[in-house]
Amino acid sequence: MQWELKVRLTMKMGPGFLIAAAFIGPGTVTTATMAGAQFGYALLWAVIFSVLATIILQEMAARLGVITHKGLAELLNQQFQSPLLKWFVIGLIVAAIGIGNAAYEAGNLTGAAMGLHNLLGGELPLWSLALGAIAALTLANGNTKSLQTVLTILVMLMSLVFIVTFVIADVDYAELFGGMFVPQLPDASILTTIALIGTTVVPYNLFLHASLAAKHKTDSSPHDRLKHIQKDSALAISIGGLVTLAIVSTSAATWFGSSVAPQMDSIAEQLRPLLGDYAPAFFALGLFCAGLTSAITAPLATSYALCGALGKPTDPDSKLFKFIWLSVILFGSALCFLAIKPISIILLAQAANGLLLPLIAVCLLWFCNQANLLGQFRNKLWHNVLGTTVVLTVSGLGFFKLISLF
């Protein structure tokens, strides 16, 4: 099948790079830019923490997929014996990932549309509809390998430019290292800190990673497959975190302490030290690629998560699988075209995510300690120490975020 071929080819590049491409979207660029402009280098520690937390959680999710050949949502559905607890978890997954990704899809399409608008002109709603159609057609025919490869390369190229710009920009390295290794929370920075972590430690990426890893069936031993995916994921996520760090730092060097606040049409100013007058066009191209990559990845992850949570086959050729990703794209496209700001929906998704991420992190720890699931590949002591630290930190931030919404 085309989808099976696509998964095999994607896995050669590694699921980690698909995960990294998924979280380097318009939201990450915007959040990191605003963090640097408003708080300088003070929140870089949150970027470092989010990268380490993501590597730890994504490794556990991928390990579950490789060894059990099941997605995370499937395991959640099968392992919970209490019907009440099972349906509570399913409800959170539907709210946080199903409804949430449908709302966030509008942001992905809008970001990609803004990139095209800045490059070619035209109306944003029409570009959003066109991009929604491209995402739907791409997922419908199953031939996403070539497009995903091209988009990932372009996103990585944009990432390289941010990193090189960071190197040649007028960065205050004393402040930078202080921000990286001395945690601090300036006044009114808590929500920005949560947003920085939230753009990297994303619940739906845990479901996507486990499902893609479960498809990674080769002639090599489970140990070799797992080792390959662990290295791939650590490298890809680290590169993604370096990009976020570079965006925060170049934004701090450009705007922090000035009376000018960055706007969407001026974010490209960060790239001017390297690209000069070409900065706006290059940034627009990168924004288009980042947005479209996320617009394709988010519906795919939603289908894996919801089908698994509902106990249905996670078969990309099944009607339910296709119905879910199509619904996400249609909903996001409609919000873009009608220029509706789904504030209440996003608030619901944020509240659900605030509960879901700590719960999924706890479940990952639990599953990864089960000998009947992972055998010799279950967690070691250092896995549990690091994982517990991440769970406690993410739980505290998640519940603070939940409380702050009410």
UniProtKB/TrEMBL annotation:
<protein>
    <submittedName>
        <fullName>Manganese transporter</fullName>
    </submittedName>
</protein>
<feature type="transmembrane region" description="Helical">
    <location>
        <begin position="124"/>
        <end position="142"/>
    </location>
</feature>
<feature type="transmembrane region" description="Helical">
    <location>
        <begin position="41"/>
        <end position="62"/>
    </location>
</feature>
<feature type="transmembrane region" description="Helical">
    <location>
        <begin position="149"/>
        <end position="169"/>
    </location>
</feature>
<feature type="transmembrane region" description="Helical">
    <location>
        <begin position="323"/>
        <end position="340"/>
    </location>
</feature>
<feature type="transmembrane region" description="Helical">
    <location>
        <begin position="189"/>
        <end position="213"/>
    </location>
</feature>
<dbReference type="InterPro" id="IPR001046">
    <property type="entry name" value="NRAMP_fam"/>
</dbReference>
<feature type="transmembrane region" description="Helical">
    <location>
        <begin position="346"/>
        <end position="369"/>
    </location>
</feature>
<feature type="transmembrane region" description="Helical">
    <location>
        <begin position="278"/>
        <end position="311"/>
    </location>
</feature>
<dbReference type="GO" id="GO:0005384">
    <property type="term" value="F:manganese ion transmembrane transporter activity"/>
</dbReference>
<dbReference type="GO" id="GO:0034755">
    <property type="term" value="P:iron ion transmembrane transport"/>
</dbReference>
<feature type="transmembrane region" description="Helical">
    <location>
        <begin position="83"/>
        <end position="104"/>
    </location>
</feature>
<keyword id="KW-0812">Transmembrane</keyword>
<keyword id="KW-0813">Transport</keyword>
<dbReference type="GO" id="GO:0005886">
    <property type="term" value="C:plasma membrane"/>
</dbReference>
<feature type="transmembrane region" description="Helical">
    <location>
        <begin position="234"/>
        <end position="258"/>
    </location>
</feature>
<dbReference type="GO" id="GO:0015293">
    <property type="term" value="F:symporter activity"/>
</dbReference>
<feature type="transmembrane region" description="Helical">
    <location>
        <begin position="381"/>
        <end position="403"/>
    </location>
</feature>
<keyword id="KW-0769">Symport</keyword>
<keyword id="KW-0472">Membrane</keyword>
<dbReference type="GO" id="GO:0015086">
    <property type="term" value="F:cadmium ion transmembrane transporter activity"/>
</dbReference>
<dbReference type="Pfam" id="PF01566">
    <property type="entry name" value="Nramp"/>
</dbReference>
<keyword id="KW-1133">Transmembrane helix</keyword>
